[in-house]
Each structure stands twice: as C-alpha cells, then as structure tokens.
Amino acid sequence: MHAHPEGLAFAVADSRQSAASIDVSRDLEISRCVTQLRLLVAAGFAMTLFSASLAFDWWEGFGDYDTTLGYAGVALFGLVTCRLIWMLPAERGAVVVVTPYGIRDLRIGNQFLLWDSIAEISAEESRGHHMIVLTPTPALRRQLLSIPDLARCARNDRIVIPSEGLATDFDTLLRVCRDCHAASLARAATQQDERGTQGGAQGFAVQAS
Predict the structure, then answer these.
(1) Residue 16: CB partners within 8 Å, gap ≥ 6?
(2) Taking Cα atoms as reference points, which of 87, 92, 112, 115 lies closest to residue 12?
(3) Dihedral sign, CA of 171, 174, 179, 182?
(4) Distance in angstroms (rounded) separating the CA atoms of residues 186 and 25
(5) Average pLDDT by consecutive 10-residue portion of the chain (209 residues)?
(6) What is the pLDDT of residue 91?
(7) What 8-state DSSP symbol labels residue 126?
(8) What is the DSSP string of 132-176?
(9) Model pLDDT, residue 205
(10) Distance (Å, rounded) from C-alpha 177 to C-alpha 191?
(11) Helices (H), the chain
C-alpha cells in the first residue's frame, strides 16, 4: 500500500514543532532527529584532531607509543567521522508518514496501515521512552503473521511505534494520529449512513413502481 497522494506533504523541521501548528488534513512527513548525529560528527572531528596531535608529537609526556596510537586514532576516528557525515543526508528523509488515511513507519516496515484497520490508539512509556501503541482490528491481527516486519514489532497483538529519534515531540505525534484516526472513523460512518440512505431510497422507488 502507499500513502494517499492527496494533500500537501511537508516535513517537520529538526526543531520541535508544536501540536497547535499541525494541520491534520494534510500529510505529515516526519524525519529522524539529526541533532545526536551532528554531535557525534563533532566528537569524531575532535578525536581525529587529538589523534593527529599525538601522531605529530604536539604533546609531550604521553609515552613511547603516542605516535603509533595517534596514527591508529586518525585512521579509526577519521573513518568513523566520514561514515557519520555520509549518513547525514540519508537521515533527512521521512521515516514516519501520517496521512488522513493511515500511517507508515519505515523503521518497522514499508506497509501503510489504514486507520480503518486500527481499532484503538494509546500511549505507553517504557524505560523513559514514549511509544504509540496501535491496536489492530481482528482482520488486521490475522494478517500480522503474514507481514514479517510488523509481526516482529508487534507486542501482544499490538503494533508499537517508538517516538524517540524523531524530529517532533511525542505529544504532537500522538495528537495527529488520534485526530486522523477519529476523522477516518467519522468519514467511514458518514459513508455508511449515505449508503444506507441511498439503499432505502432505491427500495422505495422499486416498491412504488
């Protein structure tokens, strides 16, 4: 499944966005928070520079092996820092997409879960980390075994979406999910009422003829 193409998609900035500014009628694309990755890049630069200072004997009193350790540190921390820098653009892509029709979390799978297949949305906290818990309908619960990615992330027949590492706060994500879910249920109920009304009108017309 894929996200519905309608609606204007926009990415949440790395700075925390308030829940009041989110329009739930539009697609919400949430990327990873790259602040921690940037800190690791800065630490890698610092360690590489320190190792270079040892390799070129900028310091005294570190022993006979400081040059060897310095070259080893430059090679190790230099490679790690380059790897982290290479990862920065990739981390800017959306990993969680919330639309008026469903949700997809690329961290747990590529499947797009329709709100119609979600019976309830709740929040839990474990070891200081907040999680959004999706309780699937019986129909989706029967399909979980055939979806390996979701089956691995399911706990007690519930799908868990962690909020850590995302470029938005937990309250915003929870509110948008609940609002989209409620709107989807209301839309489904309205469509069912319309079908019932049309069916009754057609039945009356047949009887009158």
Answers:
(1) 167, 168, 169, 172
(2) 92
(3) negative
(4) 14
(5) 38 39 65 74 88 79 71 88 74 78 86 91 86 89 75 74 83 91 87 68 47
(6) 52
(7) E
(8) EEEEE-HHHHHHGGG-HHHHHHEETTEEEEE-TTBSS-HHHHHHH
(9) 47
(10) 21
(11) 35-55, 66-90, 138-143, 148-153, 170-208
Task: Show the tokens assigned to 59.
Answer: 């310091």
Cα 68 from Cα 116, distance rounded (Å): 62
pTM for the structure as a whole: 0.58
d(CA 51, CA 67): 9
Q: If we measure between CA atoms, which residue out of 106, 98, 96, 95 comes closest to residue 183?
A: 98
118: left (phi over 0), alpha (psi -120 to 50) or beta: beta
**Beta pairing, strands 94-99 & 102-105:** antiparallel
Instruction: Report domain extents, the chain.
Output: 35-90, 103-209
Q: Which two tokens stand for residue 120?
A: 């309830």
